[in-house]
Write a structure and sequence with these properties.
Radius of gyration: 19 Å
Helix content: over 70%
Number of helices: 10
Order of helices and strands: HHHHHHHHHH
Oligomer: single chain
Number of domains: 1
Length: 272
């Protein structure tokens, strides 16, 4: 793996993670949330992730594993790795819920900053705001791993995934910054906490890479690749699509989903 790929992977993972800061900035510099646009964007993100997972990443993992272990064993390892990725992110979600956060991706609106009732509620929720930031940081680790490894193996695919994850992280930035702001009255602190929660994404990618790089071979790369597909499918179905429906009309999220799939398909065709 070339050094240039490592630099690109770090840059893309950093971009994806720190887009939580975009959400925080939107909360402070816009008056209202464009819920329709956000619904389409989240659906778009899900479409990109689902399409690239099933059409590209899953089969790349299969190709590597079949080449190393034969058709039957390679296919079995590939399927097991896919569901292992789903199991991993599901366990992380469960741990987050156990520490007291029902939904770290809770939909918050920019206009909540001007809502006196919300203000009254959030003043008592500084601790909850911190836990929300921590929960999102934990959740961003496997997303960072997914973005990093995808960029290492295929830069063009890594760019698409980084963009999809970045869209996904924007409402997370709002979810962290709004309660922190009302608890402290400090916009800088709210932005900083939101920003730091996204920083765990590149950290997760780097830790995962350096931990696994010493064992790197076709089998491990294939398993990680397919596990990444499982992680992204789970995130899309469990978080992105439900959030998209919460922010807007049902059909808008589906239109965004189809658009994301179409754009991803076109980009793959153009780079054949």
């Amino acid at each position: 793996m070339e050094n240039s790929n490592i630099i690109l992977a770090i840059g893309l993972t950093l971009f994806a993670g720190l887009s939580t800061g975009i959400g925080s900035a939107l909360a402070f510099f816009t008056k209202r949330t464009n819920t329709k646009a956000l619904s389409i964007a989240l659906g778009f993100s899900a479409g990109v992730m689902i399409y690239v997972s099933f059409v590209e990443i899953f089969f790349k993992g299969q190709e590597l594993l079949v080449e190393s272990h034969g058709l039957r064993l390679g296919t079995i390892l590939n399927v097991v790795s896919f569901f292992a990725g789903i199991f991993l992110i599901a366990i992380i979600d469960r741990v987050i819920h156990m520490i007291g956060i029902e939904n770290p991706h809770e939909d918050m609106l920019v206009e909540d900053l001007e809502n006196p009732d919300k203000k009254k509620d959030y003043r008592a929720l500084y601790k909850t705001g911190l836990i929300t930031a921590s929960a999102i940081a934990i959740h961003n680790f496997p997303e960072g791993l997914a973005t990093f490894f995808s960029a290492m193996q295929d830069p063009k695919m890594g760019m698409a995934i980084a963009f999809a994850v970045a869209i996904h992280n924007i409402p997370e930035g709002i979810a962290v910054s709004v309660p922190i702001y009302y608890a402290t009255g400090d916009r800088k602190k709210a932005f900083l906490y939101s920003f730091l929660s996204g920083l765990s994404e590149p950290i997760g990618g780097l830790i995962g890479y350096f931990f696994l790089s010493q064992f790197m071979g076709e089998t491990l790369v294939g398993c990680v690749f397919t596990g990444v597909a499982g992680i992204m499918v789970f995130i899309s179905l469990d978080q992105l699509l439900p959030a998209a429906r919460e922010y807007g009309e049902h059909h808008l999220s589906i239109y965004g989903l189809i658009l994301g799939m179409g754009v991803m398909a076109l980009s793959l065709i153009l780079f054949i």
